[in-house]
Amino acid sequence: MADATDEIRLEPCEPGRLTPDELKTLFLFEKLTGEQLAWIAEHGCTMRVPAGGLVLREGDPADQFFVLLSGTISLTRRVGQDDVQTVRTEQRGVYMGATNAYLRDDGVPQNYMGSMRALSDSEFFVLSARDFGHLMREWFPMAIHLLEGLALGMRNSQAAIGERQRLQALGALSAGLMHELNNPAAAAARATGALRERVAAMRMKLGKLAKGKVAPDRLTALLELQEEVIERAAKAPVRTAMEIADLEDELGDWMDERGVTNGWDVAPIFAQGGIDTGCLTEILNRLEAPELLDQAIHWIGYALETEQLMSDIEDATGRVSSLVNAAKQYSHVDRSAHQWIDVHGGLDSTLVMLAHKIGDRVRVVKEYDRTLPQVPAHPAELNQVWTNLIDNAVQAMSGAGTLTVRTYREDDRVVVSIGDTGPGVPDEIKKRVFEPFFTTKAVGEGTGLGLDISYRIVVNGHGGDISLQSVPGDTRFLVRLPLSEPASA
């Protein structure tokens, strides 16, 4: 593994060891003129590296351009705590190192994009990045314009499209949050208006009762009975819609038989509160004034409906509060950028924020290991990863299927698995899913940067790893996060 403790062991450079004719045997230089070959021979040198030696390290300043003359080398990229071999070759003439030295200085540091190690005793022809950049710009000006346009254009496009994608994601999340907030807010507003009407009617009904020939002790008993009915309704078992409908019929018939005005309008209120005919009979017996039953039933009905409306308002405002808390948890606006976190909080808040996208036809299964330790992370960035992966999973299932969010421990890492029951990812596409701008979605539906951004957040930002496992009906993205601070943090 090419870590910071590895020592780069290059033997002293030997200027002028290759002649122009020898340089011409390398495919990179075979079309150059004699004058150009002489210039390269004068400015270049050869280096030897013993077997096992590190030639260049990923992340170091890219100050040399290497051409392999003999031996076998491997190129690796760091993924989390591991070095993944990307190239192994012994082909004479292959080049690596400061391959972008010709780009104009735009303030972005140029570093080696990978590490190179000699697997056997190897020899290289070496040019400094400065000399290689000079010859490219002087000898091939048109090609440099094209190459610069390609490299810088892709970098700028990626930045612009990435920013646009983040804005679109923010807009979609904001619209979804507003939609989720609107439902309970509208319900609370409706319940508040209805409550005002019921309270006013209850005051009027109480006034009518007070004017009637009701003995003070009977009125007091009725008030006590009202409280008992409300308490009984609060403790009533949950009934099915069919059971409530049957109870409405029984209550309506009971009220009809005793001449209660508009009894069929009041019956649903009592049925919703779980009040049966036995309770109505008890009201009648304790009232001891059958002629006041009509007003008493309506008055208690108003009280029951008032309680139901207040419960609706409490539920609606509680839903608003939970959504606001989920949004704060998702954005981490009131917390530090880097902290130790429980990954489940971010997963839950992301599921809440994406509820409108997930919809009713997707079954969400949570398989959490709540014993997992906290991990060092940038939680707002990880929530962006969860958003991308969950959104992709829902789209892959065309909005219908099972979304499984699972967490578990694997050695010294916490693993978050986000799976779907979609058609799967073909083998020829699996290796490209993390490439920038690669997408299988229709034009305008995807930028191809969601997984690229997720990869960079997990791998570069957290020292973790993200991988894909997919067969038809079972696709999983596995995010592995280290339990300790990465060395670069």
From TrEMBL:
InterPro entries with a match to the protein in the record: cNMP-bd_dom, cNMP-bd_dom_sf, HATPase_C_sf, HATPase_dom, His_kinase_dom, RmlC-like_jellyroll, Sig_transdc_His_kin-like_C
Keywords: Kinase, Transferase, Two-component regulatory system
Organism superkingdom: Bacteria
GO molecular function: protein histidine kinase activity
Entries under Gene3D superfamilies matching the protein: 1.10.287.130, Histidine kinase-like ATPase, C-terminal domain, Jelly Rolls
Enzyme Commission numbers on file: 2.7.13.3
Alphabetical list of PROSITE patterns matching this protein: CNMP_BINDING_3, HIS_KIN
Residue intervals of the Cyclic nucleotide-binding domain: 28-136
Catalytic activity: ATP + protein L-histidine = ADP + protein N-phospho-L-histidine
Example GO BP: phosphorelay signal transduction system
Pfam family, one: HATPase_c
Domain Histidine kinase: 305-485
Protein name: histidine kinase
